[in-house]
Amino acid sequence: MPRKARLDAPGTLHHVILRGIEKRRIVRDNRDRRDFVDRMGTLAQETETPLYAWALMTNHAHILLRSGSFGLSTFMRRLLTGYAVNFNLRHRRHGHLFQNRYKSIVCEEDPYFKELVRYIHLNPLRAGLVQSLSILDRYEWCGHAAVVGQREHSWQDTDYVLEFFADRKTAARERYRKFVEKGVAEGRKPELVGGGLIRSMGGWSVVKSLRRGERTEKGDERILGSSEFVLQLLCEAEPDICYQLPRKKQEDVADNLIEKACRENGIDPAALTAGSRSRKLSALRHELADGLVNELGLSMAEAARRLGVTTSAISNVLRRKCIK
To answer: Pick from 106, 252, 265: which is nearest to 192 by CA?
Structure first.
């Protein structure tokens, strides 16, 4: 089965998991650990990649980051290639160090950001690399220590993490620490490492049974998020999939796309259907018409209703685009 393409664009939140080939060690001593962390931090600054959480384990690593203008693939290629070359030279070995394809999961931010930070930062404790949370507070090879203020990494965006807990940094650190402590007893959460919608619903059998009924849910192993988030992301990245969606889902995604486009252009969504012919509104309608019909699969009549124009106007827009 061919691999699915990665989903990425500047600003996309990713949970990256990289593993040693055949589950072998990717670090042998603290010198290796320091090399990996220094490279990761330097690259985060050079590529302007916000990095929120990370944990360097023995045979794998977790990183929570937001893709910068250079893209996730450039960041990861430079990190893994540079580290692997140095590791092989230092330890006089040959061949691949990492599995050929690291795992990257696009994450819906609002419901999952805090959970992912906690999940990633608790990995050393759950794996037995540290024996208690108080030791994890000072542990050098995990981003938790920087969030609680015990270590400083100029390249780690701890302020963004703390903003989820409180406005004042002192109070935010206390609440974050309590949040992490509470997670110790909750155990592992497999739903946070991909296909979250599917796993949280009880597996593919449940999803398939829902598809046979009135309720349809969409899941993808590259995405952690709600059904609506998965659908919108897939429609933006893989337009053909939208033609397979039930009409109600198509319309929901269409409304979300229109609202997002209006917000980005500083336009009230209600203005689209009010009949205004201002240049700014007309340009946005032209842009949206192509996406709604040719990518999302709406009928021209349905697109016209949502954009406040006639069906013939949509037809003319699409015809002119084809001529170009």
So the answer is: 106
The more confident residue out of 99 and 205 is 99
Q: Give the residue from 191, 209, 224 where a domain finishes.
A: 191
* pLDDT, tens digit, 9 for 90 and up, residues 32-66: 999 999 999 999 999 999 999 999 999 999 999 99
Q: Which amino acid is at 150?
A: Q
SS3 159: helix
Q: Is residue 210 part of a domain?
A: no
- Distance (Å, rounded) from C-alpha 101 to C-alpha 37? 20
How far from 224 is each of 64, 233, 246, CA to CA, in Å?
A: 13, 11, 21
For the cut 70, the answer to whether the pLDDT of residue 123 exceeds it is yes
**175 and 58 share a domain?**
yes
User: How confident is residue 219, by pLDDT bands cut at 50, 70 and 90?
Assistant: very low
Question: Are residues 46 and 128 both part of a single domain?
Answer: yes
Locus of tokens 């592992």: 188
Rounded Cα distance, 189 and 118, in Å: 11
Greatest alpha-carbon pair distance for the chain in Å reads: 71
Domain boundary among 127, 157, 191: 191
Classify each residue of 40-78 as buried b or exposed e, where b means 16 or more C-beta atoms within 10 Å of its C-beta.
Answer: bbebbeebebbbbbbbbbbebbbbbbbbbeebbeebbeb
Domain count, the chain: 2
- Report the distance separating Cα 201 and Cα 205, nearest Å: 9
262 in Cβ contact with 272 (< 8 Å): yes
Order across the sheet with 103-107: list the strands: 51-56, 60-66, 13-19, 103-107, 223-224
Say what the pLDDT of residue 207 is.
Answer: 36
Q: Are residues 154 and 268 in the same domain?
A: no
Return the pLDDT at 237. Answer: 53
Helix axes 311-323 and 300-307, enclosed angle (nearest 10): 110
